[in-house]
Every structure is written in structure tokens, then in C-alpha cells.
Amino acid sequence: MKILSGLVYHESNTFNPFLTGLDQFVVREGEEILDRFASTPVLHEAGATIVPSVYATAFSSGIVSREAYEDIKARLLRAVEDNLDVDGIWLHLHGAMLIEEIGSAEIDILSALRERVGDEVPISVAMDPHGNIDPRVPELATVLRSYRTIPHVDQPEIERRTAQHLVSLVRGEVGSGAVAHSAVPFVISGDIPLTSQSPLNEILAKLDEAEAIPGILDASYYVGFAWADVTQCRGSVVVVPEGPEHASLAQETADSIRDYVVSRFPEFRFTTPTLGVAETVAAFDDVAQRPLVVSDSGDNTTGGGVGYSTVVLKEVLEAEPSDKVCVSTIWEPGAMAELASREVGEEVEIAIGMDHDEVSRPVTVRGTIKAKGDLLGYMSSVNDRIGATCTISVGNVDIVLTDQPGSFVTLNHFRSAGLDARDYDVIIVKQGYMFPEIAELAGEHIMCISPGATYQFIENLAYTKVDRSAVFVAEPVGR
Ligand SMILES: [Zn+2]
């Protein structure tokens, strides 16, 4: 059994004015990429020879430049063309990756693979539940299964599951049939549906029940990705049958879960306080349990925000807080270049802000360089260096600058920057919902409703391709 493996993962935000270039991606090839996939041991155990293709991932950001994508795609297709005798293809894709001039990367990749290997070779795909799934995607793939969890902690499990299903297909233990797709006619902020909360937890239980039905291999609910102004922006339910004879069962199951999702949709709500920028900073003096973690939610680089906003920083500096505050991570390549020749401990006066638009207007600070370090990557790439950090202390406020967009999604991200997250009373992160290690650290959480490409109240976004009647209007939550 010969299986080709690869990962092309990016969540593309059309409200982010910057294209995502190749320099923002971690791109790897060769045998080393197999160590990054939980699918690898499953395939090895099945006796498969694994052909590595490409591993390419980046923080969520703007639409991917055509040049960057063509480079990544060429690496994938080279591996396929050199191995046209593969028995199956295992991939990890996002579901909301958009390419300049092309559109959906998932459709483009799967179409290119089908052109080369034909319709009979099974393609099994692990995916992110924040995908905007065009019906073409399940037409082209044999198996697709999203993670259940938001925040995403079951990626390895889904990599193993999709690999196991691929093995079963190649061995003929299960058959393949038309994958059912049922559109959920709603668009919701990516930070509202969380696995631990109702109604998503009950919807996920329905998916588990569906997967226990004989004839059903996989069932997924994609909540969609609201920060993409594309016609396929919405949720969907996807159900994979165990053979052509179960295709109608799969469609009935998908439609019935879709109806259940629609019936529960009005119950979605924010579960943490949603406060304005000034209200958030005013709350610093009144925190019951420290540290307070603040999501700079409009500039969330885990949802495609630019990561350059100085709006919250300005408010924090004006407040001259008596608490120790960490403002992480502001993308500022200009200031980073200026600071390159300066040493830790030196006093500096520097303007922070790329001055691209209203949210990135510069603020001049005078302070001391506290630390220099590495900026680490995202999701399965959290141990890869993707750039540099420089932290400047201004009074009680530590400001973390970076030369690439990023977010401190693990405690190791702080350590790699030369910081200890535990030193702070207040930590500001470029996130929406908190990533698991940050959530564990947090005494309290505020979803700061800041401006930017990941603005939470999505009914205010300048959609042109999304049906406005489908846009979920969330209620603000007080503290
Ligand atoms: Zn996601």
C-alpha cells in the first residue's frame, strides 16, 4: 500500500488588506514532515509506504498570494506526479483557504489531484471546522472529517481517524459513495461556537450518534468562517457513507443534523464579557482573579486579523496602569528593523504602528528593551520559529513587537520571546477565544471588542457576497 501525505493549512480573511506571502508560511518537504502527522503511525502500522509531499502552514491572515500558493502547490503536485501509482492520498486541509485570483484552495488542490490520479484513488482529508465548504469539496474528496473541538485540541485524533478510514478504503473493508453536503444557512462569528458550550456540545453529540449508524463513516459540522466575504461563506453538515448503497442514508442524516443545527442556532451566544476598548482597560483595576486575559478580538491573528493594531496599546499607555501588563504581539517590521542593532537593557524611543490605516496609527514610546527572542508558529507548527520578537518595557507595560504577524497561543510562545506569562496581572493577546494553555492560565477573560479585520459583531462588516439575512446578530455580554 502506497499513500501520499501532506498538509496545506491556512484560514484566509478577506477583510485583512494584506496578501499572505510565502515568508509567512512554514514550508517543509521530505521525510521530516511525516513526523508532524499523527496519521503517520497509523499508516505505518497498516504496512503502508508513505510518500511525503508538502507541509505548509501559517497563522491565519489575508488571502494567500498566488505566487506563494503556486510554490506550495507545485511541491505537492511534484510528489504526486512522481508517484502516480499511489493507492491513496491523505491530506490535512483547512477549508477556508483563499488564493488571490483563484478562490478556494481546497477545490483547486483536490481538482488538481483528481486530474492526476483519477476518480478511483481514495482521498481522505482532515479539516478545520471553521471551513466554508463549497459542495465541490465533498464531490472531490472520498472522506472528509473536521475536528470536533473548538478550541482545536483533537487534531491528532482526526488525523489518525482519517488515516484509518483511508486504510479501510484501500483494503476494500469499506466502500465509497457520494459524500452528503447540507448547507447551514447561517454565518456566525468564529469565536461564538465553543465545544464546551451549549448548543454546540449538543450538536456535536448528534454527530457522534450519526457516526454510530451502520452505513455512516463520518459526520462533521463546519461552523463556517465569517471573516471571508465569499459566496460559500456559511456553515455545513457533511456526512460520509460507507459505500454507494448508503449515499441516500448519508444525505438524509446530513439534512436531519442540518435541521437540528438550524433549530438550535438562536441559542448561540458569547460566553465571556464583550467590552469596548476603554471599558476593558477601566476593568484592569477591578479584577477578581488574576491574570486577566484580554482578547484584542478585532485584530485576532488566529482568525485572520492583521496583528498590527495599536488601538488597545494606546488606551493601556494612557491609563498608566499600576498592574503589570503585557501587550502581545504587535506586528511592526519597521520598528523591528530599527531595534535590530539595539541591545537588551538599552533605553530607546520608538514609534510603534505601521500607519497603514486608523487602527495602526503610530504611538511613540520611551522605554527599555527588556528581551529579544523568537516568534513561534501556529497550530501544528507551534515549535517552529517564524520570526523575531522584541519586548520594550514602558513603566509597567511590556510591549511585544514582532517582525511577522503572530499570536502567543502557548506559554512557550512567551518563553521563546524571553518572557514569563506568570509575571503579569493583565495579558493582552491577539486572539478571540483563548487558546487552551492561555485559558488555563487566565483568572478572568474579557473579549475586548476592538476594531479590525476580525470584528466580532459581524453584522457591521462590509459584506458584498454574503446574504445579510444569514448573518448571526450576537448580543453583547456585560461583566
Ligand atoms: Zn479553526
Name some characteristics of this structure.
single chain, 479 residues, alpha/beta, 2 domains, 9-stranded mixed sheet, 6-stranded mixed sheet, 12 helices, binds zinc ion
Strand content: 25-35%
Structural class comes to alpha/beta
Q: Kindly state the percentage of residues in helix.
A: 25-40%
Structural shape: globular
| N- to C-terminal distance | 57 Å
Main beta sheet: 9 strands, mixed
Ranges with pLDDT <50 over ≥5 residues? none
* Strand order in the largest sheet: 14-22-15-21-16-20-19-18-17
Chain-averaged pLDDT: 97
Report the radius of gyration as a whole number of Å.
22 Å
How many helical elements?
Answer: 12
Number of domains: 2
Question: Can you walk through the features of this model?
Answer:
With 479 residues, the chain is an alpha/beta fold. The chain folds into two domains: 2-267, no CATH class; 274-455, no CATH class. The chain is 25% helix and 25% strand. The chain has twelve helices and 22 strands. The chain has helices spanning 39-45, 66-81, 105-117, 136-140, 155-170, 200-211, 247-264, 277-282, 311-319, 333-339, 411-416, 436-441; strands at 2-9, 12-13, 26-29, 49-57, 61-62, 88-93, 98-99, 103-104, 123-127, 143-146, 180-184, 216-222, 235-241, 274-275, 292-296, 325-331, 347-352, 363-376, 385-394, 397-402, 426-429, 444-448. The chain has a nine-stranded mixed β-sheet with strand order 14-22-15-21-16-20-19-18-17. A hairpin with a 3-residue loop joins strand 7 and strand 8 (103-104). The longest helix has 18 residues, at 247-264. 56% of the residues are buried. Bound molecules: zinc ion.
